[in-house]
Design goal:
Blueprint lengths: L1 H7 L2 E5 L7 E3 L9 E4 L11 E4 L1 H13 L2 E7 L10 H10 L3 E6 L18 H17 L9 E6 L6 H5 L3 H4 L4 E7 L19 H4 L6 H8 L3 H10 L3 E6 L14 H16 L4 E6 L9 E2 L12 E2 L1 H13 L5 E5 L2 H4 L5 E6 L2 E9 L10 E7 L13 E8 L10 E2 L21 E4 L7 E5 L3 E6 L2 H7 L22 H5 L23 E4 L16 E2 L2 E3 L4
Parallel strand pairs: 1-5, 2-4, 5-6, 6-7, 7-8, 8-9, 9-10
Antiparallel strand pairs: 1-22, 3-4, 10-22, 11-12, 13-14, 14-15, 15-21, 16-20, 16-23, 16-24, 17-18, 17-19, 17-21
Helix pairs in contact: 1-11, 2-3, 8-10, 10-11
InterPro entries: GH, GH79_Enzymes, GlcAase_C, Glyco_hydro_b
Keywords: Membrane, Transmembrane, Transmembrane helix
Protein name: Beta-glucuronidase C-terminal domain-containing protein
Length: 546
């Protein structure tokens, strides 16, 4: 989290999912536990148990926020609107204070019927009414002071579209209670490989090409363009509240690949160019393929090595692309005649071009499919003077192929392989300085195949996106027992141990073993229109990658 905050200024984290609708805050649990799971037959399709937790969980979140600027989304249980459980709102407000960003009301309500949580005639109008019950109850609760921080409707665009909720008059009726409008969506699912009732399992190798084009991110965002415009008109942020490569933990070989990192960069920037305020990548347990990071499968008395997934590199890359100013403007350049494999984006700060992001989905070790992007600013038929600087600065995210899992570098730094990270980037950061041709008003930027290039148009733009150091924290608890040495090769193939009393599966539909979503894209003001008077032209030419 510290790495994200250094680049974006803050990090947004959601604690919730399928668990939240059946979760109950209790004052204490036996043997000092903070969380316990119970099987109460709630019929979640991913065998998600009900959850009991104590205020200590919220105190842990608050303690994290004292160390790093982490801010939290929580969820109000909605399984029983006749007996609402608002303790999470009461304690969350009291314990987290300004670090509580908002409270979600209902997780994927459009799937309630399918999951057996509501009768078959449940409609968006019923959800409209239930949301009103929550609003009234919060306003009547003297222990809740903030009643304007609700997040909704968080539909999965499964059995309802967002428009069906908007058509109830939802936004206008509850505008004083809503802090943001939210949706959740995955482009695919791997549920059939894990659970009955989902049809035949999908072949990841056949699915992989679907993630390796610019059309992938655009197709996810397209159904929400109308909703993002509605949110903008209402003065509300529009948030992708849960997403990742595929629900039910992702696909092996896709979700844990360099290709997924490129996909996430493209998808994240496409959301930015489409007036999404930010998006939250789902994080699961040990058996989830799309995790940005996974802890060791045992306690950390003497072993502190985490596994960093490829998609976490995209988190850092997007954070640096947007910067920490919170006023970035993002434009999809439709680069190279809108080539599906070499997309590009321009990022403006206060009306001035600050960065350009260039992707190349192709894998070609020969270098024949690397390309040179020729960038021009102003000049030509724009009616503006030439504006290319004398030099630009470039960071590269590269790997040998889109299928690579660990041999990945961001500006020549890496987290290493499985069980190889302490959370810090290793190696010496390398930023390439590229001289521009001001007479011709061009800068030539090589983009490797595969790879991502982030071009900074000033030293100040580079500086604001590049942390000078990484804050680390010491361990506060020491083991009182004799520590046993474990051979690293044995640990690497270990299944680890479960802290659960019951052997159930996922605590969130997007995973098969965990339950929180980490916010990776900073909240920003996003405008689709290109700033007047500044033109950016990209031209592609084959080039060998050194």
């Amino acid at each position: 989290m510290s790495l994200i905050v250094e680049r974006a200024g803050r990090v947004h984290i959601r604690v919730g999912g399928n668990t939240q609708d059946y979760a109950t805050l209790v004052k204490s649990l036996p043997r000092g536990k903070v969380i316990a799971k119970e099987d109460d037959g709630n019929s979640n399709p991913t065998l998600t148990p009900s959850l009991l937790y104590t205020p200590d969980l919220l105190y842990m979140l608050a303690n994290i926020s004292t160390l790093v600027n982490a801010n939290w989304y929580l969820g109000i249980p909605l399984n029983d609107t006749t007996n609402l459980r608002l303790a999470i709102a009461e304690y969350g407000e009291r314990i987290l204070g300004s670090h509580l960003l908002g409270l979600q009301v209902g997780n994927e309500p459009d799937l309630y019927v399918r999951h057996g949580h509501r009768p078959g005639n449940y409609t968006p109008y019923d959800y409209f009414g239930e949301f009103g019950v929550v609003v009234a109850a919060m306003e009547a609760d003297s222990n809740i002071h903030a009643t304007n921080n609700l997040m909704a409707p968080s539909v999965a665009t499964g059995d309802w579209t967002p428009e069906e909720v908007w058509n109830t008059g939802f936004v206008a009726s509850y505008t004083s209670s809503l802090s943001a409008l939210t949706v959740e969506h995955y482009p695919d699912d791997n549920c059939a490989a894990l659970y009955p009732g989902f049809g035949p399992a999908k072949d990841p190798q056949a699915e992989f090409p679907n993630y390796l084009t610019h059309a992938a991110g655009k197709s996810i965002v397209a159904p929400y363009l109308n909703s993002s415009a509605i949110a903008l008109a209402a003065g509300k942020p529009f948030i992708m509240f849960e997403t990742n490569t595929a629900s039910c933990g992702g696909f092996p070989g896709i979700s844990d690949s360099f290709g997924a990192a490129l996909w996430a960069i493209d998808y994240g920037l496409q959301m930015g160019a489409s007036n999404f305020a930010h998006g939250l990548l789902h994080v699961g347990g040990q058996d989830v393929y799309y995790n940005p990071f996974t802890p060791p499968p045992t306690n950390q008395s003497s072993y502190h090595k985490w596994t960093i997934g490829p998609i976490f590199y995209s988190v850092l890359a997007v954070a640096e692309t947007l910067g920490p100013t919170n006023n970035s403007q993002i434009v999809d350049l439709e680069a190279n005649a809108n080539n599906n494999y070499t997309p590009g984006y321009a990022v403006y700060e206060n009306g001035a071009l600050a960065r350009i992001a260039l992707l190349n989905y192709m894998t070609d070790p020969s270098g024949a499919n690397s390309y040179t992007a020729t960038i021009s600013v102003g000049g030509g038929n724009t009616g503006q003077p030439n504006a290319v600087p004398a030099q630009v600065y470039v960071k590269y995210l590269v790997a040998p192929s889109v299928g690579e899992k660990f041999n990945i570098t961001w500006a020549n730094q890496t987290f290493g392989g499985q069980f190889a990270s302490d959370g810090r980037l290793q190696g010496v950061q390398t930023v390439q300085t590229v001289a521009c041709n001001q007479a011709a008003n061009t800068c030539a930027i090589t983009v490797p195949a595969p790879g991502f290039a982030l071009v900074f148009f000033s030293s100040s733009a580079l500086k604001e996106s590049t942390p000078s150091s990484t804050v680390t924290f010491v361990t506060t608890t020491m083991s009182k027992h004799t520590d046993v040495s474990i051979d690293a090769s044995v640990l690497a193939t270990s299944n680890g141990h479960s802290g659960k009393d019951l052997d159930f599966g996922s605590t969130s539909r997007g995973s098969s073993g965990g339950g929180k979503a980490a916010g990776v894209y900073p909240s920003i003001v996003l405008l689709v229109a290109m700033v007047a008077g500044v033109g950016v032209v990209l031209k592609a030419a084959a080039n060998q990658w050194p």
